Amino acid sequence: MELTNYLPRVGDDELQQQLEASGAVLIEGVKWCGKTWMGLHAAKSALFMQDRDHSKMYQQMASTKPSLLLEGEKPRLIDEWQEALILWDSVRFAVDKETHPGQFILTGSAVPPSDVKGEIMHSGVGRIARMRVRPMSLWESGESNGSVSLNDLFEGTDVAAVSELTIERLSYATCRGGWPNTIGKSEKTALRMARNYVEEVIEMDIHRVDGVEKNPTRVRKLLQSLARNISTMASNETIMSDVKANDQSISPNTFASYLSALSRIFIVDDVLAWTPALRSKTAIRTAAKRHFVDPSVAAALMRINPTGLLRDFKTFGFFFEDLCARDLRVYAQAIDGDIFHYHDKNDLECDLIVALRDGRWAAVEVKLGANEEDEAAKNLLALASKIDTQRMGKPSFLMILTGGQFAFRRDDGVFVIPIGCLKD
C-alpha cells in the first residue's frame, strides 16, 4: 500500500524474504515500534482489528465466518490479530488451501497468555513465519550515517569513517528512543511522547496481556528496579528484594507474573548468555543480562532527561549499552544473526557477542568514552585467546563500540567504531 512519510526499516527486506518463503508472516514486537506501518508498506489490503468503529462487527464476523475477514488483495495485513484468536487457524487454513506464498501479514504487540492458547488449534508451523521488530536503530532514524556496515565487518572490510553524532545528540536519542512517531518532532514534544508511552505501559498495556488487573504502583517499582539494574546480570532475587523494599506484601508468584507480563508485551528484552567451546574448563555464567527494548524506557522510569544524562556519565554508560544492544540486535537480525553476552567464573566478560547462523562470530565491548578503550581491547583479546577456535572458529572481528567520532583499526587489530557510523 502507498504510504507517505514512511521511514524505511532494516526489516523491510527480511519481511519480503519471509513473504516469498511462507504463506503468512507474523510480525511481533513492542507496541508503537512500527509493526503496522512496516506491514502496510508491504501489504495490498488491510484489516485493523482495533478499529473501534468496526471492531464489534469484526468480532461478530470472526465468531461466525472468519474467512470473510481474510478477503482482500494479497498480501493482506491483519493488524493485532490476537483480538480474535480464531483468525490464526483461519489464516493457517487459507494458506493451506491457496498454497502460494505471501498471502497474509499478521501483527501483534502481545503474546497471547497460555490459558487462551487452547483456542488456537494449530501452531502454524510451516505456514506462518515469525519475525521480530524493535524500535528504530540510529541508522533507521537518520542519526547514524551508516558509513560502517556490520555485514562488511564480517566480510573482512577495513574501516575509516567519522561520525557526526555528537555526545549531546546521542544523549537526546537515548532519552527519546527509537519510536517512529517521535522522529521529526521537536525535542520537547518527542521526549514527552516517550515518557507518555511508558506511563501507558504502566497504567494500561500490561493489563491487556492476560486481562488481569495489576497494581500500577507495583508495575512501576518493578520497572524502576529493572532500570536501576539495566545492562547488568542482576538476578530475579536481587530485583525482587529491591521491589520488596517498598512493597513487603508482594509474593514470589506475583513478582513472576508481573515480570512475565512485561516480557509478553516485549518491553523487557534481556540478552542471553553465550556459551562457546573454550580451550580450558572454565565455568560460564548463564544468567541473562537485563535490558529493555529501548533505552528511553529506562530514562523515563529514572526520570532523567538528556541534560541529566550528560551530568551522570556512569548512568549514561549503562543506558548507552542498552542502546547499543538494541541497534546491534536490529543489524544482526538483518544478516541472520543474534546477540549474546559473555561472563565467566574468572569475571572475564564481554558486553555483546554477535553470532551468525553460519557459525561466524564477533566480540563487542561497549564504551561511551575513549578513556577505557585500552582496557576494552585487552578484554576482547583475552576472550579471543580463550575460545577453542578448532570448534568455534576465530572471531571475524573484535570491536569497541563507542559514542565517539572516529572509526579505525587499532594497532592490535581491534576496531573502534562509533555507534553513529554503524548500520546493518
Task: Quickly list its features.
2 domains; 424 residues; single chain; 15 helices; 14 strands; alpha/beta; globular; five-stranded parallel beta sheet
Task: Tell me what the structure shows.
The chain folds into two domains: about 10-130, Rossmann fold; about 150-190 and about 270-424, no CATH class. Helix 1 (about 10-20) packs across helix 2, helix 7 crosses helix 11 and helix 8 crosses helix 9 (about 235-245). A hairpin with a 4-residue loop joins strand 9 and strand 10 (about 360-365). It is built from 15 helices and 14 strands. With about 425 residues, it is of the alpha/beta class. The protein has helices at about 10-20, 35-40, 55-65, 85-100, 150-155, 165-175, 185-205, 215-230, 235-245, 250-265, 295-300, 305-310, 315-335, 375-385, 390, and strands at about 25-30, 45-50, 75-80, 105-110, 130, 150, 160, 335-345, 350-355, 360-365, 395-400, 405-410, 415-420, 420-424. A seven-stranded mixed beta sheet has the order 7-12-13-11-10-9-8, with helices on both faces. The model has no long low-confidence stretch (mean pLDDT about 95). Helices cover about 40% and strands about 15% of the residues.
Give me the secondary-structure topology:
Elements (H helix, E strand, L loop, with lengths): L10 H11 L2 E5 L6 H8 L2 E4 L6 H10 L11 E4 L6 H13 L5 E5 L19 E5 L15 E2 H5 L6 E2 L4 H10 L10 H17 L12 H13 L7 H9 L7 H13 L30 H7 L4 H5 L2 H22 L2 E7 L5 E8 L4 E7 L5 H14 L2 H4 L4 E6 L3 E4 L5 E4 L3 E2 L1
Parallel strand pairs: 1-4, 1-5, 2-3, 3-4, 6-14, 10-11, 11-13
Antiparallel strand pairs: 7-12, 8-9, 9-10, 12-13
